[in-house]
Specification:
Blueprint (H helix, E strand, L loop, with lengths): L2 H33 L1 H12 E6 L6 E2 L5 E13 L8 H19 L4 H13 L5 E7 L1 H7 L9 H4 L1 E10 L7 H4 L10 H5 L1 H4 L4 E7 L5 E10 L6 E4 L3 H18 L3 E8 L5 E9 L5 E2 L4 H4 L9 H10 L8 E3 L4 E4 L2 E4 L8 E3 H7 L2 H12 L3 H10 L17 E2 L12 H6 L4 E2 L2 H12 L4 E2 L4 E6 L2 E5 L4 E3 L5 H16 L14 E10 L10 E11 L6 E8 L8 H4 L1 H14 L23 E2 H10 L3 E4 L5 E6 L3 E6 L18 H10 L3 E5 L4 E4 L12 E6 L2
Parallel strand pairs: 2-8, 26-28, 29-31
Antiparallel strand pairs: 1-6, 2-3, 3-4, 3-5, 6-7, 8-19, 9-10, 9-24, 10-11, 12-15, 13-14, 16-17, 18-21, 19-20, 22-23, 23-24, 25-27, 27-28, 30-31
Helix pairs in contact: 3-4, 10-20, 12-18, 13-18
């Protein structure tokens, strides 16, 4: 066979193999599409679709009087499936102009021509998940659902609504660090973190299809499991008092050029925290709540610790309040260190009662060293007996550990540890831990755990309650407690805090001025900043509230506790006293005559009759009905029956003109989730009366303020 024939043979063989291979591919394709098609389409559907998690709405966090401190507000992304089965070319072309105009008028971010251009381009590309508008609120969504094309529903319009929630603080920075928030790494802080297991709810799931680019689109609601919203937290925070504390703290921080500070107000008998403010100077000279100093920052407390030192020594019977001590010109040497009094020249010879009033370092340290110099472990044990070495067990994360070292700590203990501990150095406490100790003094020696939450509700019904917790039933003997309280009253009456004296009620407490050592410079003058504080309670004879104020790194007008921190305490105490009639026992309770009938909210007829009767007011009924509107007449309140659209199942009730309590009762019993903005009477509701709704929908009611 010549070379030409051999080449032709090889070419024919290769050609034949290619033909056979092509026929095999065609046969295999035929088999896949027609014979096994049903099987492989099912497998593709499994790969492209999946049950995806749906996050629930977090529960609300309320203030003491029912106002929202944190809430979840729904936001929506509006998308279109341009390949929806019912979205024909005729339907799309017939509505695109009017739809584009409506979108432009609603959002006012683009012209109708731009909306039309983008929608047409997405249609040409056959996009399954085209983004029309991001971050649409509930009111806008209601309007959008009525637009041309969109009103036809998902199957014909291809309308896809994606819901998500954002966390809002209606009162902005007020107690925001304590209320807390969720960080980007999913870390939850504050009450949001401490009560996360109640707030977070239960996740649901729904079937979604994965599109090109990794996006997921909901397929339908068949087989979906709705998420269960979280429970609501009812805090102890008094929002009016919180506003006062926040304003007073910022004003004083600015006046003193301070870097940061904190205020905590606590109810004596229960340990309920009524206000807590933590402010830090920002780069733009504003103050913000970015760190919870009251809970999470442990520092040397300075002179406020002297009260604990004397309580231990008095209770051990090793010192007496009448013991005399020479302050030695304001300087006493302990080994290689000299302790100074803040008052140049000292205070002469004074007793321990007066030593605490004027905050003498030299007198108190000498007394403690004499009592415990040969048995320092007994002094440390006394401090631990008070509970000062243990955290308070707060129900919010981040509480710093207190530090009370003893002689067993060979590396840290030295010959000067005892005298310096006695005046608040070489120990470390948070402001909240210091306040809890002083609150215990005010509470007849009963140390209470600070509480931030009273109870938890779900759908308006209480599911859990947190009772006050005593951490130490009796910190010291009654005799010691009586002496300590007398000393603390003397601090304000004749001691270092005379600028806090009030004409109508007595304040008891202790000033504190502590040096804060810097990392490298220690306590040398060029490396030291100061921390000014005042902690106490009022009224001194029958304490109802305790409070601590800490101001760090003041740079103007001095750094002493009475001057820097004291005015904040005084302003808060004055405000509470003036607004709490139960504290003003010496004032005559005068009942002014009623000259005219007051304006009242609409609500439950029987409740209104009972309340108005108790005020000595006459009512006139214009008919019978469970719910009424009210009109102020010359000599009586007119009760007019009101129809509430929504009495039929599935229709939104009308609560405009009602008070919050009645409005919540009606709406929540209809299965609606209620968000409240403001205080007072309901003036507006986000869902129109008589409108159809489903259980679990959110309604926002706006109250007069």
């Amino acid at each position: 066979m010549d070379a030409k024939k051999a080449l032709r043979l090889r070419v024919n063989v290769v050609y034949a193999l290619l033909v056979v291979f092509a026929l095999a591919i065609v046969f295999h394709l035929f088999t896949i599409q027609l014979v096994e098609g049903k099987k492989w389409r099912a497998e593709a559907g499994k790969i492209a679709t999946a049950l995806r998690t749906v996050q629930p709405d977090r529960g609300h966090i309320y203030s003491e009087d029912g106002r929202l401190l944190a809430t979840s507000v729904p936001q929506y992304d509006v998308r279109m499936d341009m390949r929806a089965d019912g979205l024909t070319d005729e339907l799309f072309d017939g509505n695109i102009d009017s739809l584009s105009l409506c979108l432009s008028q609603l959002f006012r971010d683009r012209s109708d021509a731009e909306y039309r251009r983008d929608l047409v381009a997405a249609r040409d590309r056959h996009e399954r998940y085209f983004l029309v508008k991001r971050n649409v609120d509930h009111e806008q969504l209601k309007v959008l659902r009525a637009f041309p094309l969109y009103r036809l529903g998902r199957s014909k319009a291809g309308l896809v609504i994606e819901k998500r929630t954002i966390r809002m603080h209606p009162f902005n920075r007020l107690a925001s660090r304590t209320v807390g928030y969720v960080l980007k790494d999913s870390t939850v802080i504050g009450l949001e973190g401490g009560f996360d297991k109640w707030l977070k709810g239960v996740t649901g799931h729904r079937l979604e299809r994965r599109l090109s680019g990794g996006a997921w689109m909901p397929v339908d609601d068949e087989g979906a499991q709705d998420p269960v919203p979280g429970s609501d937290i009812h805090s102890t925070i008094d929002i009016n008092l919180q506003d006062l504390a926040d304003h007073a703290l910022e004003a004083q921080l600015r006046k003193n050029g301070a870097h940061h500070g904190c205020v905590v107000v606590m109810e004596t008998a229960t340990g309920h925290v009524k206000a807590i403010s933590n402010l830090t100077l920002q780069a733009d000279s504003s103050y913000a709540e970015d760190l919870n100093y009251a809970v999470g920052t442990s520092t040397e407390p300075g002179s406020t610790f002297k009260t604990a030192s004397l309580m231990v020594a008095l209770d051990d019977g090793l010192v007496k309040a009448t013991d005399q001590w020479d302050t030695k010109g304001g300087q006493v040497r302990f080994y290689n260190r000299i302790m100074h009094d803040s008052h140049d020249g000292g205070f002469g010879v004074i007793n321990l009662h007066r030593a605490l009033e004027v905050s003498s370092n030299t007198a108190i340290s000498q007394a403690i060293v004499k009592a415990y110099g040969k048995q320092p472990a007994r002094f440390v044990e006394g401090l631990r007996r008070l509970g000062l070495d243990r955290p308070l067990g707060l129900r919010i994360p981040g509480e710093a550990m207190p530090i009370i070292r003893g002689p067993e700590d060979k590396k840290m203990w030295s010959g000067v540890s005892l005298p310096w501990m006695s005046i608040g150095y070489e120990v470390s406490l948070t402001p909240m831990q210091t306040l809890a100790f002083y609150n215990g003094i005010a509470n007849n020696g009963r140390l209470m755990q600070p509480q931030f939450v009273t109870h938890i509700t779900r759908a308006g019904k209480e599911v859990e309650r947190f009772e006050p917790v005593a951490l130490n039933e009796k910190m010291c003997s009654d005799a010691t407690l009586k002496e300590i309280r007398s000393m603390l009253e003397g601090v304000v009456d004749t001691g270092t805090a005379t600028n806090l004296r009030e004409a109508h009620f007595r304040i008891a407490g202790k000033t504190g001025t502590a040096q804060v050592a810097q990392a490298k410079a220690g306590y040398k003058a060029n490396g030291t900043s100061y921390q000014a504080s005042f902690v106490g309670y009022f009224p001194a004879d029958a304490p109802k509230y305790s409070c601590i104020v800490v101001v760090s790194s003041p740079s103007m007008r001095g750094y002493y506790g009475n001057i820097v921190a004291g005015p904040i305490f005084k302003e808060i105490a004055n405000k509470i006293y003036s607004n709490r009639l139960e504290l003003q026992t010496g004032l005559a309770q005068v009942q002014p005559p009623v000259e005219r009938t007051p304006l009242t909210y609409g609500g439950n007829a029987q409740d209104l009759r009972t309340a108005l009767s108790g005020l000595g007011l006459r009512t006139i009924s214009a008919g019978e009905g469970e719910w009424v509107s009210t009109t102020a007449a010359d000599s009586a309140v007119l009760l007019t029956p009101r129809a509430i659209p929504g009495d039929l199942q599935g229709m939104v009730p009308n609560v405009v003109g009602m008070g919050l309590k009645d409005a919540l009762f009606i709406l929540e019993n209809k299965g609606l989730r209620v968000q409240v903005v403001g205080a007072g009477m309901v003036k507006r509701q986000s869902l129109r009366p008589g409108e159809r709704y489903q259980k679990g929908h959110t309604i926002i009611i706006e109250l007069t303020t």
